[in-house]
Design brief:
With 420 residues, the chain is mostly helical. The protein has 15 helices and no strands.
């Protein structure tokens, strides 16, 4: 989480390049190359050229460095996606993308675990083989980026504010701003964006997102610990419930994406956010009984996986929606940095409070987290999402639509009866 603090620096560097593709290749190419040193370190350990302490140190250094590199590349990558994915398709696109990602995790993580634990040369050698496959897959994924449309950040930042409404945008890779390019040709007036600290809509989003990450991380790291410690469940049950959570997330992600394209992201965040906010309270009624193990805990993880699919998807899409095209990476970087700090702060404070009996231990943390989650949803009511109906209007339209359907249905039944 704290590695996200470096995202503003990454945004600053990426905006001074002429290619999102080349910047991504440099950042993530180096990041993937670093894992080769760990593979070599495992080989050297097996040949007694490194001791266990040196191997652990090497691992920690590589993990830290790759997280920092991910922070340098995150804002540029998100800005690249925001430009090449049409606005009207973002919900469906990111829903399918997340579902494919979750499916890959569901398949590959168990296979990697089996390969590591059953390798004839020991678990460390087995992990080395799995790591080699992962490194190879990472470089193949970089190769896939060669087929994506490139974006010139300098050209992107020369856009006017009116370009935010354009859904027929077709980016082209250019090294310098060209007045005849499809990007600039559609914007005759160059209107400068207000500074970020004067963008009221985005500041409200930052307030919501930071408070939400703090509230969620007050309790999120401790649900598995609650099952293992308080409920005394075996670790196999915990992994089983984790698979149920991932499966529900996988199935519902695409559905939430389609719904977000229809009614907007903010409305879903408010409605589903209330369910996510009260979820920690539902854990208080769970015990280690057979009914809870076989029924209530699976249902609870289905609810959590399904609702978090909506939250993750719509938080990402809402951020893409309200950030202007010009200096877009800076907006994404600041949001990620604040979210990282507030999330880390929430986890740290949650750990201290859980150890203090005054606050009721883990059940007390669940109640506190619930209250803060509900509080975090309040700023959402003041965020303006372009070309989306208000929550009240959606409810009214839904009611009118149902009433109209009911009237039409009665008329249909009356006509059938008259014919008989």
């Amino acid at each position: 989480m704290l590695a996200n603090l470096i995202q503003p620096l990454g945004a600053y560097l990426s905006e001074r390049t002429t290619s999102r593709f080349r910047y991504s290749m440099w950042i993530y190419g180096i990041s993937r190359l670093l894992w080769l040193f760990l593979a070599a370190g495992i080989w050297m350990y097996c040949w007694k050229l490194l001791d266990s302490h040196q191997l652990v140190t090497l691992t920690l250094v590589i993990v830290l460095t790759t997280h920092l590199l991910a922070g340098l590349g995150g804002a540029s990558w998100l800005s690249w996606l925001a430009m090449i994915v049409p606005r009207r398709l973002r919900g469906r696109y990111f829903g399918i993308r997340s579902s494919v990602s979750n499916l890959t995790v569901l398949i590959c993580v168990p296979l990697a675990g089996i390969a590591t634990s059953t390798w004839h040369g020991g678990t460390l050698q087995g992990y080395g083989i799995v790591l080699a496959v992962g490194i190879l897959s990472g470089f193949i994924s970089l190769g896939c980026q060669c087929f994506k449309v490139d974006i010139n950040p300098i050209e992107q930042n020369n856009l006017g504010l009116g370009e935010r409404e354009n859904n027929n945008f077709h980016p082209t890779p250019l090294s310098t701003p060209n007045p005849q390019s499809p990007i600039l040709r559609q914007s005759s007036v160059q209107v400068p964006n207000p500074p970020i600290w004067k963008d009221k809509n985005f500041l409200i989003f930052l307030g919501y997102f930071s408070l939400w990450m703090f509230a969620v991380n007050l309790s999120a790291p401790f649900f598995n610990f609650y099952m293992l410690d308080t409920l005394s469940l075996d670790v196999s049950w915990v992994t089983f419930y984790g698979s149920i959570h991932a499966g529900a997330n996988l199935i519902l992600m695409v559905l939430w994406g389609r719904l977000a394209d229809r009614i907007g992201n903010r409305s879903i965040l408010i409605l589903v956010g209330i369910l996510v906010a009260i979820t920690p309270i539902l854990w208080l009624g769970v015990s280690g009984s057979s009914l809870d193990i076989w029924l209530w805990l699976p249902l609870l993880h289905v609810l959590t996986g399904g609702t978090w699919a909506a939250i993750d998807l719509c938080n990402n899409n809402l951020q893409l929606e309200i950030a202007p095209i010009r200096n877009q990476a800076n907006y994404f970087a600041i949001a990620a940095a604040l979210a990282g700090v507030s999330g880390a702060l929430g986890t740290t404070i949650g750990g201290f409070l859980a150890e203090n009996p005054i606050y009721g231990g883990l059940p007390g943390i669940f109640v506190i987290s619930c209250l803060f989650r509900l509080l975090a949803l309040i700023p959402l009511a003041f965020i303006q999402e372009q070309r989306r109906k208000s929550l009240l209007q959606i409810i009214l339209d839904w009611g009118i639509g149902n009433s109209t359907w009911g009237i039409g249905n009665k008329k249909f039944v009356w006509e059938i009866g008259k014919r008989k």
